[in-house]
Design brief:
This protein is α/β, with parallel strands linked by helices. It folds into 5 domains: 2-80; 87-224, von Willebrand factor, type A domain (Rossmann fold, 3-Layer(aba) Sandwich); 229-328, Immunoglobulins (Immunoglobulin-like, Sandwich), CATH 2.60.40; 331-554, Rossmann fold; 560-625, Immunoglobulin-like. The protein is 27% helix and 28% strand. It contains 13 helices and 32 strands. The strands form 8 sheets. An 8-stranded mixed beta sheet has the order 17-16-18-19-25-24-23-21, with helices on both faces. It is elongated. The two termini are 37 Å apart. Residues 648-652 have low confidence and may be disordered.
Length: 698
């Protein structure tokens, strides 16, 4: 036993002698006189005298105990081990076990070995040792705090399962270090049980070392010579048109082993049916492409899902790669004519209409319609591209309708002219944090009447998909068109000028808006401000612009990975309506669309095909794949990792010392936790009550 304030214990012992001294001083010795006549009375009263004497002795004992216990209570007693062997001062370990649950641990037999090694480390601890557990992957982490009850940790380890996420050892090790920082004294140990693959250490910096008093042991349970192949990427056109009869899908297959792979079967599945198969040979640590003829039903406009897979190996999760493709019979284009004329030749869309309706044998099929008003929201959903041709004005509601159309994936072409009121466009489409317009409209310059001067398109980005077909000689010259009048504009920060006049002013600007894109043509689409429509480059330029917007947006497939939130873009009229989301296991989740008619679904723990079903609407599909950076399971050297985390010399380590301050802190903590003083005070109180009761009867 120890005391935090030993002087009070001494004072209590001294005080306990006071009742005894008083008792001895007050004791009187009576003279014995024998009277024969009272011996019978003495014999009858002897029993009462003995009982009275016993009560007085008991009362004396209670008073002695009261003073003694009171002194001990103020002395703050405690029972503790020697500091050199105390668990809190290094006599036992505080261990954190990190168990890797990333998908590379699904390699045949690896995770079962990992769980056994983790349990062995747990069993190696004494009963007084404290342990914590971290189940680690990229985006999933379960943490059990430090405790001396190991059975719960054992149960969690035995029931642990791998995830489909990648490895992030940095997050797990930093979490373990934070747990051990809460221990002011004692041995601190981290056990990392995993395959130690290289990709899990890419985020480490020199400053990410462990605390100086923390040790780490790496338990490498990975294969020395892993044999793994994976499909790392797929190149598939997001949209297939009728005229694209020989569309190619290319799957990239990588061999992560050190041996050559021959006659590896690669299979293509479309709409859950096997469509094609081929064999490939792959050199060690190399990739090869498997090219398939994409055969989908072009007679109907619908979304198709599929996957490419290779034959099973020791790690199966990365053997399949999912994709979606949209089949289209035609590109649906709607134009709002801002300057309708009785005479066709003078009409704003005269040349535009004829260019888009004349697709020839090589061009993409275009379903062209026209109106003089902005279509309704329901009508807009049927179109792939909307053209605003010299439209003078529109209401706030119509402007919001157009923004929603583009944000949900539609393509928008804005052409300017003499009907344009720049203030209207700036009010509805510009000036915000994320304006729809790719530029600020300043002023129209030039003279389209006298035509004394003109500008030409002198700068074109031939790497842009619209202009790639014109990059070779004799494939179209934009410099032949004369521009007598155009709008001076200033591109916004997130917009790009992909064609410019010879004075540097933009001729064509592009901006990404939500899931859609906007093109702004700064002159007119007819011959009123320029003569480009009469040149041969005009028709293919319009076709490429429409095709770029339609195919770029209609087939813009997000590259979702396991754990990413899926985004469903709807319309405002669907706000609050219920949809059903099915995961790859066909498990249904019912959710409500938000006030914009959109939906975010985050439960994507498994790779595969996810579908969103809404009454009266076509089914929406998204695919989720694993991150194949995890497929390379080549490990890092444990010695190299130890040097990375704890330093290479003993000078980098700081041993734990039991200083007088640490000893005192330990004693105070033990006394506080045991609370013996409180029990002693309660005993004093009980004795005081008993003493008062007994004293009244003596």
């Amino acid at each position: 036993m120890g005391f935090l304030a030993g002087a009070f214990a001494i004072a209590g012992a001294v005080g306990a002698s006071i009742p005894l001294i008083i008792h001895l001083l007050n004791r009187e010795r009576a003279r014995r006189l024998v009277f024969s006549t009272i011996r019978f009375i003495q014999m009858s009263h002897q029993t009462n005298v003995q009982r009275h004497r016993l009560k007085r002795l008991l009362l004396l004992l209670m008073r002695i105990l009261m003073l003694l216990l009171l002194g001990f209570a103020f002395a703050r007693p405690f029972f503790a081990q020697d500091p050199a062997t105390a668990p809190e001062l290094g006599g036992v370990r505080n261990a954190v076990i990190i168990l890797d649950t990333s998908y590379s641990m699904q390699y045949e037999g690896v995770f079962e070995r990992a769980k056994k090694e983790a349990i062995n480390r747990l069993d190696g601890l004494d009963s007084a040792d404290a342990a914590a557990l971290i189940l680690s992957a990229d985006k999933v982490r379960q943490v059990l705090p430090l405790e001396t009850e190991h059975s719960h940790i054992r149960t969690v380890i035995e029931n642990a399962e791998t995830t489909n996420y990648t490895t992030d050892y940095l997050d797990a090790i930093q979490t373990a270090d934070e747990i051990l920082k809460g221990i002011s004294i004692g041995q601190k140990q981290i056990f990392l049980v995993g395959d130690l693959q290289k990709s899990g250490w890419e985020n480490f910096l020199e400053t990410d070392r462990l605390s100086p008093d923390v040790d780490i042991e790496f338990v490498n349970i990975g294969e020395e010579q892993p044999n793994n192949q994976a499909i790392t990427d797929i190149n598939v056109p997001p949209v297939v048109l009728i005229e694209q009869k020989d569309t190619e899908l290319v799957a990239r297959v990588h061999n992560f082993s050190t041996e050559r792979i021959e006659n590896l079967n690669v299979n293509l599945y479309i709409d859950e049916r096997k469509a094609d198969t081929m064999e490939v040979d792959i050199e060690p640590e190399d990739s090869t492409d498997a090219a398939f003829n994409l055969q989908v039903d072009l007679q109907s406009e619908s979304a198709h899902t599929g996957w490419v897979e290779i034959e099973d190996d020791a790690l199966e999760i990365d053997n399949r790669y999912y994709f979606t493709v949209q089949s289209m019979q035609s590109i649906k284009v709607h134009c709002v004519n801002g300057e309708k004329k009785r005479s066709d030749i003078d009409d704003e869309t005269f040349f535009l209409t004829r260019a888009l309706k004349d697709v020839g044998d090589e061009g993409a099929p275009i379903d062209y319609t026209e109106s003089v008003t902005i279509p309704s929201e329901a009508a807009l959903q049927r179109y792939d591209v909307l053209i605003l041709a010299n439209v003078k004005q529109f209401s706030t509601v119509e402007a919001e309708r157009i923004k929603t159309f583009v944000n949900s994936g539609g393509g928008l072409i804005i052409t300017l002219g003499d009907q344009i009121d720049s203030s209207v466009y700036q009010q509805h489409f510009g000036g915000a944090d994320n304006p729809l317009l790719p530029c600020t409209l300043m002023q129209a310059v030039g003279d389209p009447i006298g035509k004394p001067e003109f500008k030409v398109i002198a700068s074109v980005d031939y790497k842009h998909p619209i202009f790639v077909p014109f990059s070779n000689p004799n494939h179209g010259d934009f410099g032949k068109g004369r521009f007598y009048r155009y709008y001076q504009t200033a591109a916004t920060a997130d917009a790009t000028a992909i064609a410019s006049y010879d004075d540097g002013n933009p001729a064509l600007l592009e901006k990404v808006y939500g899931n859609g894109r906007v093109l702004c043509y700064t002159s007119s689409i007819d011959r009123e401000w320029n003569d480009l429509p009469i040149h041969g480059v005009f028709l293919p330029f319009l076709h490429e612009s429409v095709k770029y917007l339609a195919l770029k947006q209609a087939g813009k497939v997000p590259d979702y990975r396991v754990g990413d939130a899926l985004e469903y873009i709807g319309s405002r009229d669907g706000a609050g309506k219920e949809v059903a989301v099915f995961n790859p296991d066909k498990k249904e989740t019912r959710l409500e669309l938000n006030e914009q008619g959109n939906l975010y679904f985050g439960a994507t723990q498994n790779p595969g095909i996810y579908s969103v079903h809404r009454s009266g609407e076509t089914t929406h599909y998204d695919v989720v794949n694993v991150d194949t950076a995890e497929s390379d399971i080549t490990p890092r050297d444990p010695e190299e990792l130890t040097s990375l985390l704890v330093g290479s010399t003993e000078a980098d380590r700081t041993p734990t010392e039991i200083t007088p301050e640490v000893r005192q802190e330990y004693r105070e903590d033990v006394e506080k936790n045991q609370g013996i003083s409180m029990y002693l005070l309660l005993a004093v109180f009980a004795l005081a009550v008993g003493e008062m009761f007994l004293a009244n009867r003596v």
